[in-house]
Amino acid sequence: MHGLMESKKNLTAKDVEDSMDGNICRCTGYRPIFDAMKSLAPDATEELKRKCGDINLCAGCPCNDRNSAGKEIERAQEVTGFEQEFETCNDSLPLHLNLKSGEQWVKATDLNTLFMTIQRFQASGLKYRIVAGNTGTGVYKNDGPYQAYVDINSIAVLTKVSVNPVSVIIGGATSIGVAIETLKKAAEMEEYEYCKHISKHWQRVANTPVRNAATLSGNLMLKHAHPEFPSDIFLLLETVGAMLTIASAPTLQKMYTIQEFLKTNMAGNVIFSIHFPKLKGYHFRSFKITRRYQNAHAYVNAGFLMQVDPKRDFSILSKPSIVFGGINPNFIHATATENFLEGKTLDAKTIQDAIMELDKELQPDHRPPDADPMYRKTLAQALLYKCIVGIRGETASPRIQSGGPDLERGLSYGKQAYDSDKSQWPLYEPVVKLEAPMQCTGEAEYTNDIHPQLGELSAAFVITKVANAMLDKVDPSEALKMPGVITFVDVKDIPGENNFMVTADQAGPDVIFVKDKITYAGQPVGVVVAESRSIALKAAKLVKVTYTNIQKPVLDIPTSLLKAEKEGRLDDCIIKVKPASQTKLGAAFRKLKGPEYDISNIFNWKDGDILDDSIRVVRSPRKHFDDAPHNLQGQFHVGSQYHFQMEPQVCICIPKEEGMDIFAASQWIQQLQSAVASCLGIPNNFVNVQVKRLGGGFGSKIARAAHMVTACALAANKTKRPVRMVLDLETNMATLGKRLPYMFSYDVGFDDSDGWQLIPGQANTDTPPNTYCRAPGAPQAIGCIENIMEHIASTLKKDPMEVRMANFIKKGDPIFAGQGKVLEEDNCIPALLTEMKTNADLDDRMKFVATFNQNNRWKKRGLALTPMRCAIHYFFSGYNLFLSVYGKDGSVSLAHSGVEMGQGINTKVAQVVAKELQIPLSKVRVKPTNVLTGANTALTGAAITSEHICYAALKACDILSKRIEPIKQKLENPTWELLVAECVKAGIDLTSYYNTTYSDQLKDYAVWGLTACEVEVDCLTGEYKLIRVDLINDAGQPLSPDVDIGQVEGAFIFGIGMWLTEKIQYDQETGELLTNCTWEYKPPASKDIPEDFRVTLMRNASNPNGVLRSKATGEAPLCMSVSALFAIKNAIMAARLDAGNMEWFNLNGPVTPEDIQRLCLTSPGSSLNKFVQLLKMWASPVKVTGFRSKNRRKGIAK
C-alpha cells in the first residue's frame, strides 16, 4: 500500500482495489482489507474514513515515529536525492557471482557487457537464462536447469520508452506495469487511441506484483519457448501488428513481425524494443475469458482489429485481424474468417456465414485441466459475435446490445450491523483481534519464523506419480550424490509403527511411507534430508521410483460405484435404505447391497426422526412414493475443495535428551504427540508439542498434519539433528486430502405429508484420503436439500421460497435423531424473511431483475433466497485452560488447549477473562498451546472450540474468584493490583485450571440464517459477477462482534470458492492432481466477492443454550453461500426461457463459466444452425411473453 501511495499521487479507491489482485486470502472475505486500504484514498467515502479513522494510530508502528529509520530514509530521499544516487551507483557496478549451488549470476550493466557474457557462456557450453523479474518460473517450473543467469535490470536502454506523435516505442525489458502506464499516455493521441484498450486488457495479466517485475520481453520469450502459453502480451501485439526490434549484438538490430519472432532462433539474441503502429479509423476489441476475474490465465483470449465504415452499412474496408489464444499451440490467426470478412458488410447473413467459417477452422486441442475443446470453440465464436455486436452498437436490436460489453465490476461496498451491550464490555465489545497489529506489521511469529536451530537440516517428501499400483523400487542413489544431501529416510527407518492415524476415533490406519500398495498419486515413499530446503527439494526429484501392476485409477464417485461390486469400493453407512435413483449407478448399488434395508434396530430411530436437521427417517419409503401424487428424481454433485490455508504444512522436530521437541502448525496437538510417539516407539511423555498460532487451518491441520510431522520426526531421529519440513504448495496439494466430494441421488415423492429417504454409501477412490474442511458435510447436505426444494418448486411451478416455508421445521418437531428431543424455539426464518424484504428491497429488486431479463438477451440476472438452520453439536470435550495471575502487577497469563488460527479464539477468551475478573483487557495475555498444560485435548475445529475454551475460562475464573474472595472482603474497595498483592502475601494460589467434560452439559443448538444473492451472467461466455449479497446470521449474543463479522464474511467467501471457482481435477490415466498450484487452482480473489456485501448479526437473538448466550460463527455462514449457485441457476433459467426451454436442469458445484454457457443454450455445440438462428435475433426485437405460476393442485407441496 505504501508503494501504491508513493507511485500514484492522485490515488483513488479503484486504484486500491485494482492493486490487491495478487492477494489470495479468501478467509478474510477481502472486504475489511479493502475498507482499511481504501480509507487512505482521497475519494474514499466519509463513512469509510470514519470507520477506519484511527488506521494511523497503531501503537508502536514505526510510521508514527518521526525519528524512525523509515522517516530518516524518506527525508534523505527528499533532501539529497538518495534514491537517484543509489540507482546510478547500481548501474555502474557489474556483478559476477559464483553461487554455492554451482550456478553463476551475472548482472549486465550495458549491451556490451550483456553480449560479451552471452558469448562467453555459449562458448563454454553453459545453458543460460536472461532474467529480469524471472516470473516465468511461476508458470513453467521445470524449465532448465540453467548453469548461469544474466540479470538485465540495470541496462537502461532496454527499459527506455518513447511516446510522441511519430512513434510509440517501449523497451523490451520494460515491466508490464510500466508498459501499461505508457500505453495509457499514448492513448491520448488519436492514432494510438486503441492503446487504452490494450492497457486495460494487460491489467488482467497475472497480478500487480508480477506485472511490476515481469517484462514484455520475458513474457514473449515464454511464448517463444512454450507455444501453448496463452500470452495476452503476444496476442494483442499480434492483433495490432506491432513490430519487434531484436538485437544480436550491441549495434546490430533487425525488425521482425510478431509471428516472425516465433520462428527466429533466439539463442544469443535479445528483444530490444517493441513498436506500436498508428491505427486511426480502426475498431479494436479484445477479450480474456477466465475462471476467476483476476490473476488467472485465459480459457480463450482474443483480439479483433477491423477497419469498418459505419456510413457504408458497416462495411469492412480491409482484411481484419482476428487472433485467438487457447485454441491449440499452433493456432494464431483465424485466417479463413479474416479472408471471408474482408469487403463484407456486418449484417445478419455475414455474421452467420462468418461464424460457420470460424467453426471450420477452429480445432481446439484437449489438454486437461483446461476447459473442454467444445467450450473453447464455441467461446471463440461467441467472442467474434460480441465484437461485431459492439461495433454495431445502437444499430443493433436493444435486446441484443447487451451481448457486446464485458461484465464490468463496480467498486465494492460493505455494510455491517450488530448489537452490542456496552454494559457488559469488554465482553461483547467489538475489539480489535489481539494479534491483528502484529500480523499487519508482519511481526507475528508463525512456526516457520522460528529461528533455525544449530545444525538444523531440511526434509522434502518423495512422492509417487501414479495411483493404484504396487511399489517396485525406490532408488535414492542419484539424490545422495548431490552436494548437501545428508540421507534418505523411508519405511525401513521406522522404529515403531508405520501409521500416523493412531488416535482411536480416527478412520485409520494410514501409513507414513508406502511399503507395497500405492493408493493414490502423491503418496510419500520417503523423505530426502539435506542441508537446505532448496537442496532437499531438488534432490527429492532425483529419487527414482518404479512401479508394478499399474491399474487405471478410480478418481470419482460414479466410477467407484460402477466398480463397487468387483473391487469392493463401497463401505456401509449407518443408515441403510433402498437407494432412490433408478439410474445405472443406483442399479449397481442395489445389486451390491440388496433391495431393501431394515433400520429398526439401528440407534432406535423411528419414523419422523430428523437426521442432520434436513432428512427425516422413513421406515417404509416405497409406500410414501407410491402414495404421492408427484414424484421426481435427480442427482446433485458437489466437488472437492482444497483448504488453501496461507501457511503450508510446516514443522520443526528437535531431538532432545528426553525425547523430541516439536513445533508444528497443528489443530490437534494430542494427536501429533501420539503419532510421533507411536512411530518412534517411545512413550508419549517423551514428545513435547507446542503451537503458537496457525496461518489458517480449516481442517487441513487436524489429522493430516501428522503425516508430515511423523516423517520429519523420523528424519530427526535418524540424523540426531533438528529437521525442518515445509511443504511446497504442489506437494501439499498432491499429498494431503481435501473436502469430501458428494454425489446425491434423490427420489422424492411429495404431497401434504412428510417423507424423505436417505441414500447411504461411502465410495472409495484412488485419491488422497479426504479430511475435514470448514463446515464438513453441512454445506453439501444443505445444498442438496435446497436443490430438492428448487426441483419441487420447478415441478409445481411455485415460488421456491413458498415450497421451503411449507417444509420448515416447527416448534415441537423432533430434532437430533434418537435423543427424543424436539425443537424448543420458534422457527425464526419467517421473521428473517420479513426483515430481509424490508432492508434488502427484495420485492423491488425482484421486479427489476424480471424487467432486466426481459430487456436483455445476452445478459441475465438471478436473485435467490437461501434459508439455513445449521446444527451445532458439542461432539468433543476435554478442552482445558490454565490461568495465572502475577502478584507484582496483577497481569494475567493463560494457556488453553485450543489453537489460534485466525478465528479469534484468543481474543474471545481474553475478553471473557477480563470481564470475569473485572480487569482491563490489556492485562490479559494468551500463551502458546502445548501438551503440558493442554494434555489430552480434543481437536480445534467444528466451530465449538472457542465456546469450550470460553466456558473453561468462566470456570477457571470462578475458581480463582472464590479463592481470593476472603481477602477481598478484608479490604475496602481494593484495586485489582492491591488485591492480588495481598493474596500473594497471604499465600493464596493465584493459578486455576479447568477441563471441560461431557458432564458440563453444554447444550447443542442451531444457527439460523437467511441470504439473498443477486448475480449477473453473460450468456455468451459464461462469465458472472456477484452484484449484491444480503446476509443475516444468527450469532446469539456475539462475544466479539467484529471478530464474528469477520468469521461470517470469510466463511461465505470460502463457500463461494466451493460452489463457483475451486475445481479439483486429476489426470485420468495416472491419478496425479492437475490443479496443484495457483496457475490451475483458483480460490476467490478480491474481485470475486460481492460488489455490495451487507452482513447483519441477528438482533435480540440471545442463545439460552450457548456459552454466555453466544453462538458459533466460523462454519454455519458457509452453508448459505450456495445461494450464489441458485442465483446463477435462476439467471440461466431466464436465458433458457428465451431459448424456448423451461425444463428442469442440474447445476452442480463448483459451476464453471463452461457449465454456465452450455446451460444457457447459447453454445453452438452440435446444433450450429440453432445457434445461428439465435444470433439472427440481432436484426429485430423478440417479444417475450411471461407466465404466471398456478397451483397444480390444492394444498402445499412438502
Automatic annotation (TrEMBL):
This is FAD-binding PCMH-type domain-containing protein. It comes from the Eukaryota. InterPro entries: 2Fe-2S-bd, Ald_Oxase/Xan_DH_a/b, Ald_Oxase/xanthine_DH-like, AldOxase/xan_DH_MoCoBD1, AldOxase/xan_DH_MoCoBD2, CO_DH_flav_C, FAD-bd_PCMH, Mopterin_DH_FAD-bd. Belongs to the xanthine dehydrogenase family. GO terms for molecular function: 2 iron, 2 sulfur cluster binding; FAD binding; iron ion binding; oxidoreductase activity. PROSITE patterns: FAD_PCMH. Its cofactor is [2Fe-2S] cluster; FAD; Mo-molybdopterin. Residues 98-281 form the FAD-binding PCMH-type domain. PANTHER family: ALDEHYDE OXIDASE 1-RELATED, XANTHINE DEHYDROGENASE. Keywords: 2Fe-2S, Iron, Iron-sulfur, Metal-binding, Molybdenum, Oxidoreductase.
